[in-house]
Specification:
Number of helices: 13
Order of helices and strands: HHEEEEHHHHHHHHHHH
Oligomer: single chain
Shape: globular
Length: 284
C-alpha cells in the first residue's frame, strides 16, 4: 500500500517538476476566467430580463425568459464543451507516463524497488487518473459555483457530469498506456489516442457509413470497429443529457443507456490488461 501511494505521489511530483501540472491547471483556469467574464445575466424576480454572452446582448423579446430552463441550456452546452476540452487536456497531461517510465535509467530505478511490474504500471495509471480527476473537478466545480453565484440556481447534475467525463478519460488513458508500452513514444501515444477519439466519434454513424460503402466486408468492418472502439460521441451526448435531465429531448436520453458505457468500459479494461501483459514481458 505504501508503494502504491508513493508511486501515485511521484506522478504528481513528476508533473510538477516538468511544468505539466502548472500548464494543466493554468489552461483550465483560463477557461474558467473566460466563462466568468463572458456570461453576464440580468436576473429580475427569478427570471432572466437580459443577458450578454461574449459582450453581445441576447435578445429577450417582450417577455422575460424562464431562468431555470435557460441556465440548464447553458450548463448542458458548457458540459459538452468541457467533455472535449477536459479529455484533450487529460491526454496531453498523462500520455507521457508510460514512455517516461520506460526511459533508460528511470525504469532501472523503479524496477530496483520491491514492486512488481504490473502494480507499478497500475499505480502510474491510477496516478494519471487522479491527476485528470482533480482537473475535471476543478473545471466543472468552479464553473458550477460561478453559475450558482450569478443565478442563485443549483443544478447538481452539472457537477455530476464529471463522472461521465472521467469515465471516458479512463478508457482513452488505458489505450494511451497500451500504445506507450508498444512504442515508448509520448508523441505516438497522443496522436493515436486523439485519432481513436475522432474515429470513434465518426463511427457513431456506422449504419450510414456501412450503407454508403460498396463492399460487404468493408461494411462489416465498420460495424465491428463501432462495437470494439469506445463510444466517445455517445459519452459526450450522455454528458449533455445528464445535465439537461427531463428537459432534454427523448432521443438524447437514449445516450444514458448502458450499452455505450459497457462497451467503452470493456475496451478500456482490455487495453489496460494488454498494457500490463506487454510491460511485464518487456525486456529492459
Amino acid at each position: 500500500m505504501r508503494a502504491l501511494v508513493a508511486n501515485v505521489e511521484e506522478v504528481f511530483r513528476e508533473a510538477a517538476a516538468r511544468w505539466t501540472l502548472v500548464a494543466y491547471f493554468a489552461l483550465s483556469s483560463l477557461f474558467i476566467l473566460l466563462f466568468a467574464a463572458a456570461v453576464n445575466l440580468d436576473v429580475v424576480n427569478g427570471a432572466l430580463a437580459g443577458a450578454k454572452i461574449f459582450g453581445k446582448s441576447v435578445e429577450m423579446g417582450r417577455h422575460s425568459v424562464d431562468l431555470d430552463k435557460l441556465v440548464l441550456g447553458f450548463e448542458s452546452g458548457f458540459a459538452g464543451f468541457l467533455y472535449v476540452v477536459g479529455t484533450f487536456l487529460a491526454i496531453f497531461a498523462t500520455a507521457h507516463l508510460l514512455p517516461r517510465l520506460q526511459e533508460k535509467g528511470t525504469v532501472d530505478l523503479y524496477l530496483s524497488r520491491p514492486v512488481g511490474r504490473v502494480p507499478l504500471l497500475l499505480s502510474r495509471y491510477l496516478g494519471g487518473l487522479l491527476l485528470a480527476a482533480s482537473n475535471i473537478v476543478y473545471l466543472l466545480g468552479a464553473m458550477w459555483l460561478i453559475v450558482i453565484w450569478k443565478t442563485r440556481l443549483v443544478h447538481p447534475r452539472f457537477f455530476l457530469a464529471a463522472g461521465i467525463i472521467l469515465f471516458g478519460i479512463a478508457a482513452l488513458m488505458a489505450f494511451a498506456f497500451l500504445v506507450g508500452t508498444l512504442t515508448s513514444s509520448t508523441a505516438v501515444s497522443i496522436m493515436a489516442t486523439f485519432a481513436l477519439f475522432f474515429l470513434s466519434a465518426i463511427l457513431a454513424n456506422h449504419d450510414r457509413i456501412a450503407a454508403a460503402v460498396s463492399s460487404e466486408w468493408v461494411a462489416q468492418l465498420v460495424h465491428a470497429l463501432y462495437w470494439v472502439f469506445p463510444k466517445t460521441a455517445q459519452l459526450g451526448t450522455a454528458v449533455v443529457a445528464l445535465v439537461m435531465g427531463d428537459e432534454g429531448p427523448a432521443r438524447m436520453q437514449k445516450a444514458l443507456a448502458l450499452q455505450p458505457f459497457l462497451t467503452t468500459g470493456a475496451f478500456g479494461a482490455v487495453c489496460l490488461a494488454l498494457a500490463c501483459l506487454r510491460f511485464r514481458r518487456k525486456d529492459f
